[in-house]
Amino acid sequence: MKSLKPIVAPLFILLCLMSSTPALAKDVALEQASVTAARQDYDRAKTAYDDVTNSVNLQESRIKDEQTRLKELQDEQAANKVNLTNAKALLEKKQKMLDRAWNSSK
User: Fold this and answer.
1) What single string gives the DSSP state of each residue in 26-63?
2) Terminal Cα-to-Cα distance of the chain (whole angstroms)
3) Is 50 exposed, middle or buried (0-12, 13-18, 19+ CB in 10 A)?
4) Distance from C-alpha of 74 to C-alpha of 81, rounded to nearest angstrom
5) Which pTM value belongs to this model?
6) Phi, psi at residue 4, to the nearest 5°?
7) Helices (H) and strands (E) in the chain, counts
8) Dihedral through CA 16, CA 18, CA 19, CA 20, nearest 10?
9) How far apart are CA 10 and CA 22, in angstroms?
10) Is the pLDDT at 64 greater than 70, yes or no?
11) Which tens digit of pLDDT belongs to each residue from 10-30?
């Protein structure tokens, strides 16, 4: 019997470890599923973020282009306002000359 005691203790420990192996495997499978779900959530969140970031960048580019176009139109408007004012002054001058011509011919 003395020769069995040194074998029994390690054998008992080995049996205990082997009996807990299915529980450990079950925990590992649950953790793997949890990590997979978390990875999928991360991928969805990353895709949504990247999509919105891309949209923001495109919108900022459009706004920059539109601001440039607005500035060009405002400059054109100012130049046309000057032309309009000059044309109006010339028209009024010509109208007065015509009025004087009519009045002097009477």
Assistant:
1) HHHHHHHHHHHHHHHHHHHHHHHHHHHHHHHHHHHHHH
2) 153
3) exposed
4) 10
5) 0.55
6) -85, -25
7) 1, 0
8) 90
9) 20
10) yes
11) 666 766 666 655 656 678 889
Total length of the chain: 106
| 92, two tokens | 């009024």
Cβ–Cβ contacts within 10 Å for residue 47, how many? 10
Amino acid at 65: D
Structure tokens given for 75: 């400059």
CA atoms lying within 13 Å on the CB side of residue 100: 6
Q: How many CB atoms lie within 10 A of CB 55?
A: 10
Q: The tokens 């009996």 sit on which residue? A: 19
Residue 51 to residue 48: CA distance in whole angstroms: 5
